[in-house]
Prior knowledge:
Blueprint lengths: L14 H12 L5 H7 L5 H5 L2 E2 L7 E2 L13 H35 L11 H10 L9 H17 L13 H9 L7 H11 L8 H31 L5 E5 L9 E7 L2 H10 L3 H9 L5 E6 H11 L2 E4 L4 H6 L5 E4 L8 H5 L5 E4 L10 E2 L7 H15 L15 E5 L3 H9 L7 H9 L4 E5 L11 H12 L2 E5 L1 H9 L5 H7 L2 H10 L4 E3 L6 H14 L11 E5 L5 H12 L3 E4 L9 H15 L3 E3 L3 H19 L12 H6 L3
Helix pairs in contact: 4-6, 4-8, 4-9, 4-23, 5-6, 5-9, 8-9, 9-22, 9-23, 10-12, 10-15, 18-25, 20-21
The protein binds iron/sulfur cluster and Broken Fe4S4 cluster.
Amino acid sequence: MAKEPKKVEDLVSDPASIEIIQKSQKDCVETCFTRADSQSVSCKFGTQGICCKICHMGPCKITPNGQRGVCGADADTIVARNFLREVAAGTAAHSDHGRHLVLRFKKVAEGKEKDFKITDEKALYRIAKEYGLETEGKAVNALALELADLFISEFTSQEEDLKTLELAPEKTRAVWSKYNIAPQGVDRMVVESMHRTHMGVDHDYRNLLDMAFKTSLADGWGGARIATEVSDIMFGTPEPLRSSANLGVLEEKKVNIIVHGHEPALSEMLAAAIHDPEIREYAAKAGAEGVNLAGLCCTANEILMRRGVQVAGNFLQQELAIITGAVEMMVVDVQCVMPSLPNVAKSYHTEVVSTTDIAKTIGATHIAFDEDHAYNSAKDLIKRAVDNFKNRDPQKVQIPKFKEPLIAGFSVEAIKYMLGGTFRGSFRPLNDAIISGRIKGVVGIVGCNNIKTKTDSYINALTKELIKRDVLILQTGCAAQASAKAGKLTPETALAEAGPGLREICETVGIPPVLHMGSCVDNSRILEAATQIVYEGGLGDSLAQVPAVGVAPEWMSEKAVAIGCYFVASGVDVILGQPFNIGGSENVTKYLGEEAVKRFGGGFHYIPDPMAAVEKIMEIIDAAREALGINKKTERKLLDMKDRRNLNV
Ligand code: SF4
Ligand code: MSK
């Protein structure tokens, strides 16, 4: 019997998406929501991770009558190999993004880039110092060149451990040494992972999974962190700013351009170029009131964090943006871009433009980003979108009214500044708030949307309940955009919905209870924040001791698998709203769960229900508080002036 299609209200949470999915039905346009319906039940061998196609004697699968593949690999080996390959792919994606930025940064330092520059010199000096470079008396470009070379060696180092690991608390590093998971160069880790999972190499599931942790650390503490740091130096360290999110940010009378993907370089240029008088004039001549730039997924997060560019939506809204009929151009770079976009665009006038040679899609126009003439090539793209304005069919345009205000831009530096001011920026007030129990703990809610969950529903339910229970939330990626659409990224949310302790802190400091820290690669900012908490003192001396939990409620990508692994290997428990494909091996499940908790202080927990996840999170936070001896019941009262002074803010 054919499956009954789901009601639109059961597919997505926000009203703009509901409206546009209904429009897609009227327009007879296929989307991921219809394709998900037409997919039959997922393959059980794939779901359990027990399908192996690593050599051509197979593909083999594990069944009750066939407990080993042709070569003799059992379920443990097959599941662990598949898992490690996912981590390697996720690490490669983040790190290649980081590498592209570093190579550009080096050219900037060498004076070979005319349109890119070092925007945040303070960040350059701060970061160079953190990596142990001598900064005294060094000129900006000389220091930048030295740092660029150091970053490049983080990719290429063969036998040396990553330099970035030295930024982690000593006790956390000791755990990595003990279990031999301190990574060497990012490239070596990814290559070695692929080698070890080749037919006939590494068969011990524990050895394979340790390599998964090791490789992921090269992502979180290496490639991803470098991507964040270089972006901050070249484009500016984010500071709190206002913006809005959801499809309602599109404008009827303007040329709408959407940037989508992950890399900030081209989108930064586009964001600058839309204000060029020549572009304004060009748009006016075409009968438009201007050019409106908006973002999707993590490219959106990059330019939101630094320029306040509005967010059109998160991952599962990429097709919906085109279906509004109001988008002249969707400019895509790498990662999380659906190959369906040109097909959706056929029903409207939108031109999908791919811009990097490593990411092309049939049906998209490919215009490689000309790095040597970045600003002019951004202007050319905008003009091309303006030229397309005349092809917009007003009959097909429907822009939902819905958008929510937000505050984003919470880099670690910005949080420090908010907490302590320019001269004494520090995490002390946050640590004190955690110690006093006003804030119970910190939870990072990260990751994507997944068609298997009603879009944003897990993220929103979890966020709402946790802030009520005095938990400070740090978010990145599409999860942060979900909260933005739900109106949770404003200080007013603290007043209306946060528990009394968290509300006091948010009011005093002037921050929302949910802090948007950036894109997927910026999960490194969450690690950095946790490290600052440790260094500030009073909450243990390793990341595993901090009352903190990571959650990936609606994750879908291999990058999320790598992110989860580097959080766990760093000692942070991670709750998954979607399971890994590892159910076919009890041993692997145990190794990533309870064994990891014993070894690192944090492991994976699959909890499909958000309220059950809240209970587990509070249990983990309570246990951490208990171990630190700070789990005393605190008397609740509103802060008076004396308390505020004691808070040191
Ligand atoms: Fe089958 Fe072994 Fe080849 Fe995998 S590596 S496909 S289990 S024979
Ligand atoms: S974009 S990896 S869907 S968070 Fe970073 Fe969103 Fe996940 Fe892509």
